[in-house]
Amino acid sequence: MMKTISIEQLKEKRRQGTIEMDVPFLLNGEMTVVKKKIVNGEMETYELGKPVGEMMTNATTRKEFLQKVVLDVEMGKEEVPTLYGPIYDRIEDSNFPREFEAKWAQYGNVIFFEHAEGEEVKFGSLSAEQGPIAQIKGYAAGFEYTKEIEMFNQTFNLELLNRAFGEAYNAMLNHMHLFPILKNSYKAANKTGPVYVNSDRKEQQDKTGSHYLLSLRETIKQGLTATRSAKRPATILLANSADQYDLEEAMASFTINATPHKAVSGVDTIIYYDGWETNVGKKSYAYDGVPAGKVFAVRPKRGFKELIKQDMQINATMGDASRLVESQVIGDFWRGVFAAVDENVQEITLPGK
What we know:
The protein is an alpha+beta fold and 353 residues long.
């Protein structure tokens, strides 16, 4: 059964049942955890019993404050779930170097032969994906709690800042891992153009007289066939949600003019990614999603590595009295992405209606 993944579907799934996990954070250089619990979509949070400035004055209250921040950030993450997991292998190691040569993403090749007496055994070998050098880079963001928030008891603003922090983090992760696929300059062998057929499945020069659903289906099939012919069989489609209904209808089984059409096989997952945007101050920021009318057929895992040297750590410090800042909260993470796109992706342009 084909699985579909989108931000809204993942959010709906998280609203069902109970989810519990420990979330780590840094306090005075030591790693500690706070319990995250979601019951039927409702997440338990902390309420502050003192003003922010007072909570920075000793280790106990500072820990309570950070627990509040961390859980609010986690609530923000719930609003922007990550989508790239089915495509990437996750590798986490605090000893990662800054750069990786492409050859590090290796895989083994072994085959058994019938053995004849006295003949040498055939030895396996290692092959490497051809991709760019992967680099570990540091990313950071921060926000400040001002005296104004404290004086006017604007704790809702405090929570909005925390949640926005979590949303921005997961949005950045989606962008980091999907951008290499979306913005790659594909060679001719990695491109499949629109295919037009009529209701009898006879190919047409253009969309005039064509059957849209069958044309969409034939385009996807030819794109998938290209990945198999090139020995990089795709099992995941990356698409825009604007094309969701048409894609899923075209790939399902149906009957036209008394002719049955079986469901398109080979694809187990469709990921819908429309990008993300926000405003910080007076400036707008946007991460592009999959363009409507495009689909990327992906062979997952082997050529895609999510490299984590340090996942996001949140730290709170005393603020700046000269600017009436009660506390500063800073989060940083160190990550890299290895994406051998040409060896693993087919860009498919869908037919027009």
